[in-house]
Model the fold of this input.
Amino acid sequence: MGDTEKYVWDQGVPQRFKDYIENIISTGLWKQIKGGGSSYTLESTDGSEIVEISLKDKEITYHYSYPNSEE
Done:
């Protein structure tokens, strides 16, 4: 189970999306565990949170899951 958030991103084009993901990873708080193109899955470095980030047209979607939590 997890949370999903959707936003309209007026500047959401593939290269900007890739740059956005690279900026998130460069913080050192997240690592890429799969994906590329229009969908990426990132895991927090402590393993407590996974987020799937996808871009379709101008809509960016975040789906969060928490693998180590009891729900």
Q: What stands out?
A: The domain at 2-65 is CATH 3.30.310.80 (TATA-Binding Protein). The mean pLDDT is 93. The first strand starts at residue 2 and ends at 8.
